[in-house]
Structure formats: C-alpha cells, structure tokens
C-alpha cells in the first residue's frame, strides 16, 4: 500500500518482530537502505528520498520500537543489528548502499563489522560508537504521545553514555568504503569523536557540513551532493 508521502509500505517479520519499511525508486535499481535516528522513522528521510530514488531502489526502515514496526519493549544496539541483518537476508537484496543516521548509524557500524558481505558502500551521518559522557536519562513526560515506544529513550540514553571499547576497536575491521558526514560544531556529537571514527576506519572519507546533528534535514542539498559525489569512487552508483 502507499503511505502519505507516496512511498510503498511493506512489512517483514524477523524472529517474530515485524519490521515496516518504505520503498521508492524503480525496481531493479541498485538497492539503498536508510536507517533513521532515535525517535524518528523511515519517513525522516523524506527530504532526500526523491533524489536518491532517482538512482536507487530505496528502502527506509522503521527500526524496532519506531513507527509501524513492532514495539516489543526490548531494545539494544545488538537487537537492532540482528533485526536488520535478518531482514536483509530475507529480502536478499545485498550488497546494498547503507546510510545510517545517529542510532541508525551505530546499527550500520555493527553491520559493517559483522556482515560486510551485505554492504557495498557505507554512509554514516553524524554519530560515533558510544563514548563516555554524562547525559541525564530523560523521564517520560506525562503528555508523551509520539510515533515510537518511550522505552527506547532510556535504553539508548544509558547505552550511549558508556564507552564501548569493542565497538571502537571494531571500526578498524570495517573493510567497506565509508563516507562519514559530520554535522560540525553545532551538532550534539563532538567533532573530535567524529574525527576519531574517521581515523579508525581504514577506508573512510570525512565531510563536515555545519548543519547540526540532522544534516540531511537541515541541508539536504549539501548532504546529497556529498553522498552522490563520493559514491562513484566507492563503487556505488551516481549520476
């Protein structure tokens, strides 16, 4: 069926968890999978979907606990990695160009480390593996009403506050060509952490677009220009 933004909505079940995803672009075009940030859905890619769908078959997934996917109440980076790896195995569309923003970027790091055969090119938007910081864990507002399970907030606030040495070490094992897009000094992710990632991944290009954390929303044209200029060198498709 069609969503309000005219993309095709589909679902698939992975180990009993339903994953919903939006599909756009011509059948037979190279596959591109987009993973969203915490508290967002696949629809958050709307500012860049049409342009990407001109060259790719775009799959914008709702991660577990978000949007039209199941809200099972259990959330972790590892569970989301297993969801997306299983989903890609089911669809048998790989290797794909994979774009991950924030939470979706951490899931994308894990996919590149553990299932590199599924990914032809990796694009990460403004996120590093968990590092030590002192963000407070938010309390659920009395009037909370959003298109995601509140329980994802405390789960990832806690997990994201603690340095993950294994994930940081795993960056050196990523063999997929990688583009890392940082949001610059206005982002909530420190530039030194983004630079640390770029230095750790063997084949990584770093581009900074001073737009804050939501680069593809705030400056979609610059985001697309960076992605489409880089992809041919990475072996991906571009105009």
Please sum up the structure shown.
With 239 residues, this protein is α/β, with parallel strands linked by helices. Helix content is 33%, strand content 20%.
Protein described:
The protein is an alpha/beta fold and 239 residues long. It has a single domain (8-234), classed as Rossmann fold, CATH 3.40.50.1820. Helix content is 33%, strand content 20%. The chain has eight helices and eight strands. It has helices at residues 46-53, 77-91, 103-114, 152-159, 165-170, 191-200, 215-218, 220-234; strands spanning 8-14, 17-24, 31-35, 57-61, 96-101, 119-125, 178-182, 204-208. An eight-stranded mixed beta sheet has the order 1-2-4-3-5-6-7-8, with helices on both faces. It is globular and about 45 Å long.
């Amino acid at each position: 069926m069609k969503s309000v933004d005219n993309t095709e909505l589909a679902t698939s079940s992975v180990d009993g968890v339903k994953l919903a995803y939006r599909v756009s672009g011509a059948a037979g075009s190279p596959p591109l999978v987009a993973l969203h940030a915490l508290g967002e859905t696949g629809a958050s890619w709307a500012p860049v979907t049409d342009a990407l769908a001109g060259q790719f078959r775009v799959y914008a997934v709702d991660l577990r606990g978000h949007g039209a996917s199941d809200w099972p109440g259990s959330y972790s980076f590892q569970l989301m990695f297993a969801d997306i790896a299983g989903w890609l195995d089911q669809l048998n569309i790989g290797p794909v160009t994979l774009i991950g923003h924030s939470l979706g970027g951490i899931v994308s790091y894990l996919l590149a480390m553990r299932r590199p055969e599924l990914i032809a090119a990796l694009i990460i938007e403004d996120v590093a593996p968990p590092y030590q910081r002192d963000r407070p864990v938010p309390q659920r507002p009395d009037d909370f009403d959003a298109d995601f399970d509140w329980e994802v907030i405390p789960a990832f606030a806690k997990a994201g506050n603690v340095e993950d040495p294994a994930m940081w070490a795993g960056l050196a094992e990523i063999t997929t060509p990688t583009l890392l897009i940082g949001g610059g000094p206005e982002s909530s992710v420190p530039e030194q952490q983004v630079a640390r990632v770029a230095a750790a991944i063997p084949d990584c290009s770093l581009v900074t677009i001073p737009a804050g954390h939501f680069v593809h929303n705030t400056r979609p044209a610059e985001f697309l220009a960076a992605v489409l200029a880089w992809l041919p060198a990475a072996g991906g498709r571009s105009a």
